[in-house]
UniProtKB/TrEMBL annotation:
Annotated catalysed reactions: (6S)-5-formyl-5,6,7,8-tetrahydrofolate + ATP = (6R)-5,10-methenyltetrahydrofolate + ADP + phosphate
Name of protein: 5-formyltetrahydrofolate cyclo-ligase
Coiled-coil stretches: none
GO MF assignments: 5-formyltetrahydrofolate cyclo-ligase activity
SUPFAM superfamilies: NagB/RpiA/CoA transferase-like
Keywords from the UniProt entry: ATP-binding, Ligase, Magnesium, Metal-binding, Nucleotide-binding
Domain of life: Bacteria
Pfam families according to UniProt: 5-FTHF_cyc-lig (PF01812)
EC number: 6.3.3.2
């Protein structure tokens, strides 16, 4: 119950950042991302495609697709295992059952990949030790336990909190990047 309450609070904080501010911050986060060594050195980058008030990554794809191999989440309804698949063009994206842009199932299956260098991770909140809280599906915790790569949490400064509750299976991100913070854990 406590976690659910926290999730709602964190979501509210993010939702309340005005859209124009979120857009501006998201642009700043992308330009900071491009200056990180982990980005420069990465050949294959896993990137979530934003939904709702998340850091707006959809516009990052224009640049990323030119510079890197881009992998995006591939999920199936009723299955909490998240896979990753290669995206070649933004035109391939279609809305899934949550309204999140993903590859259609057949393409996702055909383009499945298992290794990547940098995992760009969303969250509702990140703490000062790199632990994160997501929507509660356990998608990223499972994904981290079966995929190597540098785990970079991205969020707005408002999403950096003192401490989020931890469970035994939680794996922290290696670094957190916002428009004003770059914390390495
Ligand atoms: N961009 C993105 N993709 C992702 C995740 C994520 O957190 N962000 N996920 C990481 O786990 C998985 C999907 N998990 C989800 C968990 C909950 C809801 C959900 O409750 N959606 C609400 C609206 C949320 C909002 O507006 O912020 C709904 O459907 O009403 C959606 C997806 C895989 N893909
Ligand atoms: N590595 C794992 N293996 C099996 N089950 C797991 C694993 N990680 C998490 N889970 C399950 O997923 C559920 C949700 O986990 P948690 O509350 O940490 O989600 P979250 O990190 O907020 O969500 P998400 O990762 O989707 O953003 C847990 O109750 C747990 O049962």
């Amino acid at each position: 119950m406590k976690k659910k309450c926290l999730r709602n609070n964190y979501k509210k904080i993010r939702d309340e950042i005005p859209e124009s501010t979120r857009k501006e911050k998201s642009r700043a986060i992308f330009s900071r991302l491009k200056s990180l060594d982990e980005y420069k050195e990465a050949k294959r980058i896993f990137l979530f495609v934003s939904m709702g008030s998340e850091v707006e990554t959809i516009h990052w794809l224009d640049d990323l697709l030119k510079e890197k191999e881009v992998l995006i989440p591939a999920t199936k309804k009723g299955d909490s295992e998240m896979k990753m698949a290669r995206l070649l063009s933004k035109d391939e994206l279609v809305e899934n059952y949550w309204g999140i842009l993903e590859l259609p199932e057949d393409l996702a299956q055909a383009r499945e990949e298992t290794v990547c260098d940098l995992i760009i991770t969303p969250g509702l909140a990140f703490d000062h030790s790199g632990y994160r809280m997501g929507y509660g599906g356990g998608f990223y915790d499972r994904f981290f336990s079966s995929h190597e790569g540098f785990r970079l949490g991205v969020g707005f400064h408002e999403q950096l909190v003192h401490e989020v509750p931890r469970n035994a299976y939680d794996l922290p991100v290696h670094a957190f990047l916002s428009e004003t913070d770059c914390l390495v854990f």
